[in-house]
Amino acid sequence: MDSMKAVRAHEYGGPEVLKYEDAPRPQPNQGEILVRVHGAGVNPLDWKVRAGYMKTFIPHTFPFIPGWDLSGVVESVGAGIDRFKSGDEVYARPDAARDGAYAEYIVVRDSEAALKPKSIDHIHAGGVPLAGLTAWQALFDTGGLTSGQKVLIHGGSGGVGILAVQFAKWKGAHVIATGSKRNQEFLESLGVDEFIDYTATRFENVVHDADLVLDTIGGETQERSWGVLKKAGILVSLVGPPSSEQAAVHGVRGAGLSAQPSSDDLTRIADLIDEGRVKTVVEIVLPLFEARRAQEISEAGHTRGKIVLNVA
Question: Over the chain, what is the mean pLDDT?
Fold first, then answer.
């Protein structure tokens, strides 16, 4: 079998377990496509899996390739594929239980991919699928956000937050976002109606009767968020199932979310990007062999937008 360059983990642990090395090049089976990766997004999921925090939910055999966010070109297709052909430019959010995109090639199911937005390059497209699906499914599928409602988005300048702000604004919602002062002008340019500098203002003192809280942070932030919701409002957490007891005390709802691959949702998101309604933000681009450094930056937090590995 042909080989390829990839970053693999041979055990759970810190960033040092990531090795840039030769690995077998995968081949597509029925219902799958082989993609030549050009851009691979780096997400908190990547280092959480690498560290072993997710092994109960997302088991892997060693060695495995992390990275479940990508854009690239279809190299070949397996049997039964009629939606894609060799040469198509696609982006995808593959199954996190399988080998990921920190590699020159990846096999993904056709249901996990869509034609990439035509108006952006592979680096920017590579940072969209995981964050985009998370924001989309949190706001609309789980949160049921509709026009005229009020939403509070914590961590508005993060990878998920940036897209959530824009999706909510496109939907016609009143958008409130928390962030650091340096990101105020940036977030307001994306459509935020009310910006809250979390270092200077306690958001619960100024936000009331929100229909939805999108919690990307957890901990104390989540605990303080229950009281800003209107009755029957909903808190959607991306960092674990929220307390059903707290939800009951406040007369609201709570839901955890782990975004699922969806070709249909990715197609909708690509359309919004190509229509100019949604901007993508990539702050850091590193070569594939610097995946360890990319995960260290991701784990430290405070990145505006996305970190993407340039694999081409």
Answer: 97
Looking up residue 221, the CATH number of its domain turns out to be: 3.40.50.720
Q: What are phi and psi of 153, to 5 degrees?
A: -110, 115
Going by pLDDT thresholds of 50, 70 and 90, the confidence category of residue 312 is confident
How many angstroms separate the CA atoms of 16 and 24, rounded? 22
**Structural domains in the chain (count):** 2
What pLDDT sits at residue 1? 61
Q: What average pLDDT does range 18-35 have in this prediction? A: 98
Do 138 and 120 share a domain, yes or no?
A: no
Note the helical H segments in the chain.
44-51, 122-126, 129-136, 159-171, 184-189, 219-225, 244-250, 263-274, 291-300
Q: How far apart are CA 94 and CA 112, in angstroms?
A: 6
Higher-pLDDT residue of 124 and 57 is 124
Rounded to whole angstroms, the Cα distance separating 86 from 279 reads 28
Asked, for residue 215, whether it belongs to a domain, the answer is yes
Q: Is residue 75 part of a domain?
A: yes
CATH number at residue 102: 3.90.180.10
pLDDT band at residue 303 using 50, 70 and 90 as cut-offs = confident
Per the CB < 8 A criterion, the answer to whether 170 and 272 are in contact is yes
pLDDT value, residue 133: 98
The verdict on residue 272 lying in a domain is: no
Same domain, 82 and 160: no
User: Of 239, 250, 265, whose CA–CA distance to 111 is shortest?
Assistant: 265
Does the structure show a pLDDT above 70 at 98? yes
From residue 186, give the alpha-carbon distance in Å to each of 32, 72, 134: 39, 29, 21
